[in-house]
Each structure stands twice: as structure tokens, then as C-alpha cells.
Amino acid sequence: MAEGFKLVEPLEFHRKFLRENCRPDGRELNEFRTTTVNVGSITTADGSALVKIGNCTVVCGIKAEFATPPIDAPNKGYIVPNVELTPLCSPRFRPGPPGEEAQVASQFIADVIENSQIILKEDLCIESGKLAWVLYCDLICLDYGGNLLDTCVCALVAALRNTRLPSVKINEETGLAEVKLSTRNALKIHKQPVSTSFSIFDDKYILVDPTNDEEILATGLMTIVIDEDGTLCTIKKSGGSALSAQELQDCISRAITRHKEVQNLLDEVQVSVTTEK
Amino acid sequence: MEVSSESGPPTHGRCIVKRRMEAVERSLRMSGCELGLLSRPDGSANFLQGATSVLAGVYGPAEIKVSKEMHDKATVEVMVRPKVGLPAIQEKSQEQLIRETCESVINGTLHPRTSITIVLQIINDDGSLLSCCLNAACMALIDAGIPMRGLFCAVTCALPVEDLLIVDPNLKEQKESRAVLTIAMESMEKKVLTVSSRGTYSAEEFQQCVGAAWVSASDIFQFYKDSVKRKFSKS
């Protein structure tokens, strides 16, 4: 019965729940779904993580390669994020070149890296003007369950924390790079941004961590990225229902508490991985 | 619109808002807006903010490809053409932002199964480009007579150093700032419609930018009104 009602009248179905201050999956309005983090699952990558927020699953692999640093900044390396939305994750996506949503998500991740300075590009330089690392951060969505951006940011940070780069020395006589695969060093993580997404329903209810259904029915979406000092790295709200200053402030406060939750989770995962070895 | 400021270093006599909003002195760079200068589009506008200039054209409601057709409302498309080169991934993300902002004020249900296409050609970038694009898009929509619930306007704020907030920065000020925010407000309740940002800033600073945008919004809406009045008084 409820299934049929949801299919025929999706808006009214959600409204009925929201009037009682809860959501179809039993959550409260400001409650996140269960977040699961698994790091180092891809052994062929230099760093990897699989993150699930509810049903939304994103796997992030980090691959390091050599390149010559850019001419205008000889002491910097490169970070190249890419979000892939395959036809596997949702019927909305077709095979072929990345669609608008994938491109916008990639740009968002690039902005988050740039704004928050997770890792400094200077740290990726091996020899100024000659050799630097390129970090390819591939984020592949396996299951599109809503709230893609939060899952991607979480997977990216977890994978970067897991990344171990081999030590490289430049042989002065031959001028060639010598890679020592046996000694690997962790990247220096300067900031740990955490993203929190909100969906606005019927111009008045603000739901945190929207599911796919809630995103489709939403009258507006917003994503806030915050780092451990409570500094805002990115606020992305494109159109949709307008919010007052007070509502924005409430969302920022929720993002701050969310940061602590994710931070603890990532630290816990880190500890469990190091003790295993 | 030259106003010399008493607080903070002079930045071309434009708005400098003190951190605690004690002295809100403002004047935007808006130097001009010409409506209907193109013959082919249904509406067009050239919006100037200082040396930043964007030309916008609106086609619609017009016929649409079946694959893009929506049975209950109009499809809004936005194209951003950069000054040089082809549109890249960054323009794509701007296009989405502008499209969703426009969609939230356009009464699309009045023209189902049609397309409303907004083309934005960047003519010159001297800072506050995104806000200029949004303002140009809104003016072009007005000129095209597209039914809208209300208007929107965008304001760019730059945070160069502690205790200083520059509204409508130029390219140099923007580059020297640690954070640049673009905030779009709607005209009905004066609430925040769109936020886009670069760099890092505190929650308090964000609220001040919202405040500054709120104050500037009335100026811009007045400017919209004057521009439309001027167009109709001419003929």
C-alpha cells in the first residue's frame, strides 16, 4: 500500500512524514545515514578508499605519476580529480563522454582541493622545474543513492590519507630519477575538509544528507564544506528555494557537528589499518 | 557613482564595509546596462560593472528538441561563452549555477514543452564576473518578457585582509583576496538564492557578506528599474 502511494503521489508521501518531523527511512531531519569507510581496498593504486553513505557508494583511487612541473609554477605538482558517473550507478546516466552532472562534480572536487588546501601542490614537487608528482584522483560512483558530493569528498580525504608515495631520488650523474618502491611515505595532509549537503523541501523543511528521492523532489540543494578549524571552504548553493541568513547559519552549525563525526570515523579507520600491519 | 570612503584604504572610491558593519559605505561599479541592442534574440542586455562587461541574449519560449522537452515546464538552457577559447569544464559549472538560479525565478509552468535559452558572451573580465553574468541574465530575461516570480541580483564580495570587505571587487582586488564570494538574492523576500565561493573564510565573515549583499541588492534592483524605465522612455 505504502509503495503504491509513494509511486503515485511522491510529494504527498514525503509531506506526510515531514509533518511529523521524520523521514520515510526513519531518520530525523538533521540526521545522517550510516557512513561506512574502507581504506586501502585497491592494492594496485597508491591510495584508495571506499565510502558508503547509506546506499550511495563511491570508490576513490589515487594514482601517482611523474610529470614536468608547469612552467609558470616550477615548484608545484598537479592534482587531477575526476568524478565518473557510470551507467551502472543510476539509469539517469548514459555511457559516453561525461555528462553535465559529472563535470560539475569534478569541478566541485577540484574547487574543494584548491580552496581547502588539503595537500599543498608544493609538497608534490620532487625537483624544482624538473620533476613533480601528478596525483590522479579518480572517484567512481558505484551506486547513486543521493548525496554524491558528501560521499566523494569523504572518499577523497580518506584515500589521500591512505596514499603512500615511493621515495624518489634524482641521480646527479645520469640526471634520471631513481624510485625506491620499498620505502613509501605518507602525504602531508594539511586540512581535512568535510562536506555536508542539505536539501530543501517545499521551501521550508531543510533535510540533511538527502537520499536520491529527496534530491529529485527537493526545491533546492546546498552543500557546505568545512575544515577542522570551522573555516568554510566552499558553500555551493545554486538557485532553488531562497534561504534566510538564520537558516544558513543553522546549516553551518550542522556542518560543524558533522565534521566531528566524520573526523572521528576517519581517525578510527586510520588506527585500525595501522594496527593490522 | 563615486563615493569616497572614510574607513579602510581607498579602493577606487568604492564600497568598503568594515568588519563589524559599523560604517556601511557602498557604491557599486554598475556603470551601465543597455537593453535590446541585439535584433535576433527575444531579449538582450549588455551589463557593465566597471570594466567587466557581459552581453546576454535570451531566446524563448521557443521550440525544443524532443529529447530535452519537459511536459510540465519550460526547459532552461544557459550557454556561457568565454572571451577567448572554447567553453571548458569551469564554464560548465558556471552554466549550471546560472541555469538553476534562473530556473528558480522563471515561471516555467506557463510555457510547458518549450525552451528558454540564455546565451552569455563575456566581453571583458575585470573582476566580479559571475555576478555580472547573473545580472546580465536577469536583465535579458526582463527584456525578453519571460514570466518571472521575481527578480534576482548577484553581488560579489572579496575578503582581502582581516576586518575588510570589498563589494564588487575588480580583478586585481579579487586576485589579492584570500576569499571571494558571489551571493545572489531574490527580490521578493530578499533571501539568499545562490552562493558560490573561492578561498576560505569564517562563518562570521560569510554572514557579513550576506549582509553586504543584502544592502547592495536594493541598489541593484533600483538600477534594474531605472534601466528598464530608460529603455521605455526613449521610444
UniProtKB/TrEMBL annotation, chain A:
Residues 31-166, 192-256 form the Exoribonuclease phosphorolytic domain. Pfam families: RNase_PH, RNase_PH_C. Belongs to the RNase PH family. One of its GO terms (molecular function) is mRNA 3'-UTR AU-rich region binding. InterPro entries: ExoRNase_PH_dom1, ExoRNase_PH_dom2, ExoRNase_PH_dom2_sf, Exosome_comp_Rrp42_subfam, PNPase/RNase_PH_dom_sf, Ribosomal_Su5_D2-typ_SF, Rrp43. It comes from the Eukaryota. Gene3D superfamilies: GHMP Kinase, N-terminal domain (3.30.230.70). GO terms for biological process: exonucleolytic trimming to generate mature 3'-end of 5.8S rRNA from tricistronic rRNA transcript (SSU-rRNA, 5.8S rRNA, LSU-rRNA); nuclear mRNA surveillance; nuclear polyadenylation-dependent rRNA catabolic process; rRNA catabolic process; TRAMP-dependent tRNA surveillance pathway; U1 snRNA 3'-end processing; U4 snRNA 3'-end processing; U5 snRNA 3'-end processing. Keywords: Cytoplasm, Exosome, Nucleus, RNA-binding, rRNA processing. One of its GO terms (cellular component) is cytoplasmic exosome (RNase complex). This is Ribosomal RNA-processing protein 43. It is found in: Cytoplasm; Nucleus, Nucleolus.
From TrEMBL, chain B:
One of its GO terms (molecular function) is RNA binding. Keywords: Cytoplasm, DNA-binding, Exosome, Nucleus, Phosphoprotein, rRNA processing. Pfam families: RNase_PH, RNase_PH_C. GO terms for cellular component: cytoplasmic exosome (RNase complex); nuclear exosome (RNase complex); nucleolus. Its main location: cytoplasm. It comes from the Eukaryota. The keyword rRNA processing applies. Residues 28-147, 151-213 form the Exoribonuclease phosphorolytic domain. Belongs to the RNase PH family. Homodimer. Component of the RNA exosome core complex (Exo-9), composed of EXOSC1, EXOSC2, EXOSC3, EXOSC4, EXOSC5, EXOSC6, EXOSC7, EXOSC8 and EXOSC9; within the complex interacts with EXOSC3, EXOSC8, and EXOSC9. The catalytically inactive RNA exosome core complex (Exo-9) associates with the catalytic subunit EXOSC10/RRP6. Exo-9 may associate with DIS3 to form the nucleolar exosome complex, or DIS3L to form the cytoplasmic exosome complex. This is Exosome complex component RRP46. It comes from Pyxicephalus adspersus (African bullfrog).
